[in-house]
Amino acid sequence: MVEELVIAVIAAVCACGLYAMAAARVVRQYERGVVFRLGRLQEGVRGPGFTTILPFVDKLHKVNLQIVTMPVPAQDGITRDNVTVRVDAVIYFKVVDAADALVRVEDYRFAVSQMAQTSLRSIIGKSDLDDLLSNREKLNQGLELMIDSPAIGWGVQIDRVEIKDVSLPETMKRSMARQAEADRERRARVINADAELQASKKLAEAAKQMSGQPAALQLRLLQTVVAVAAEKNSTLVLPFPVELLRFLERATPAEAVQAVQAAPSPSADQPDGSPAPAPAIEPETAATEAGAPEAGAPDLAAPDLAARPKVPSVPTSAAPLDETPPKRQDAQPV
User: Fold this and answer.
1) Neighbour-count burial of 304, counting CB atoms closer than 10 A to its CB (0-12 exposed, 13-18 middle, 19+ buried)
2) Which of 18, 130, 164, 265 has minimal Cβ neighbours within 10 Å of its Cβ?
3) How far apart are alpha carbons 243 and 175 in whole angstroms?
4) Three-class SS of residue 221?
5) CB 127 within 8 A of CB 139
6) Which residues touch 148 (CB under 8 Å, ≥6 apart)?
7) CA-based R_g, the chain, Å
8) Which residues contact 214 (CB under 8 A, 6 or more apart)?
């Protein structure tokens, strides 16, 4: 009898141990437990720690409340300005209601992924290319609102949505590169023109300052020559400014200038159209211009006149000879 009682007690203890093992559950800190009893949702969510359920009656589902990082596959779309792009993103979300996440949607992860892809394609179609490239913060906010609206009923909260990359066709990349290059060139030309304007103003002020002192221009010219000669070039180009000529012209005596201006031009014509007469030349001047030796100077090129034979001179006063032959007289008859 005692042996039977001991065996019964041991069997009961084993049964209680098995029951406890089947009913015992441990919920982690980042999880929540949802209990279904014979398929019916039980009120309340099991918190973290040790909990028990009815074996073969209750079924415990654990839901992770950690933030989930889910990449959104790249989506091809056409922007509002008819540019084909390929955009991929990443979405951060978490479960805020474990019961709704299990009851209201079959697989909340798959549902959130599909909703993110659909919303991303919709955002691409409503945006311009410039917005996708430069105004991503606004697009991220709009994409977050589009996904968060249906996800609230699923017990899921969208924490953040980020557009990772925007892939463009090669032709569009080259066009954008040319546009950027043209914009840079335009800026460079504007800056260069502004620099030329400022330099011209400074040069005008310098010229106005040096116009009062012509010697300053000469000093500036010498400085330029020194700067060019410092490079040890074989050829030196020396500029000769017109202002220096004007300075020398002012330094010329006024009488010489008047005499030069009063002298008639040898190529000038008379008013009636006939050529102007040549100016009279003095004999002495003509002889000098012709190369005759001056008085008192020996003529080295002329030969000795005494060595030449003298030729009798013909008188110039003699009457000219009659070239007509005389008439022949006939003989008288005897």
Assistant:
1) exposed
2) 265
3) 53
4) helix
5) yes
6) 157, 158
7) 61
8) 243, 244, 246, 247
Q: Is the pLDDT of residue 254 over 80?
A: no
Identify residue 249 by its one-letter amino acid code. Answer: E
Report whether 117 contacts 73 (CB < 8 A). yes
56 in Cβ contact with 126 (< 8 Å)? no
Spatial CB neighbours of 57, under 8 Å, sequence gap ≥ 6: 37, 38
- For residue 175, what are its two tokens? 């066009």
Q: Locate 214 and state its tokens.
A: 């012509």
Q: How far apart are CA 108 and CA 90, in angstroms?
A: 16
Query: Which residues on neighbouring strands pair with residue 161, listed in sequence order?
Result: 91
Q: What is the mean pLDDT of residues 95-109?
A: 89
Dmax over Cα atoms in the chain, in whole Å?
A: 239
Q: Please give the DSSP secondary-structure letter assigned to residue 277.
A: P
Q: pTM to 2 decimals?
A: 0.53
60, two tokens: 């415990």
Helix boundaries (H) for 212-253: 214-229, 242-251
Query: Considering Cα of 166, then 169, then 171, then 174, what sign does the dihedral take?
Result: positive
What's the Cα-to-Cα distance from 320 to each of 312, 316, 326, rounded to whole Å? 18, 10, 15
- H or E segment and range at residue 239: none
48 and 31 in contact (C-beta within 8 Å)? Answer: yes
Counting runs of H as helices and runs of E as strands, what totals does the chain give? 10, 8
Q: pLDDT-based confidence at 92, cuts 50/70/90?
A: very high
Closest CA to 85 of 138, 39, 123, 29: 123
DSSP bridge partners of 58: 37
CA distances from 119 to 145, 157, 159, 210 (A): 9, 16, 15, 73
Overall size of the chain counted in residues = 334
Q: Report the mean per-residue pLDDT for the chain.
A: 75
Beta bridge partners of 35: 60
In the numeric block, which tokens belong to residue 125?
């179609």
> Can you spell out the DSSP letters for 187-218?
HHHHHHHHHHHHHHHHHHHHHHHHHT-HHHHH
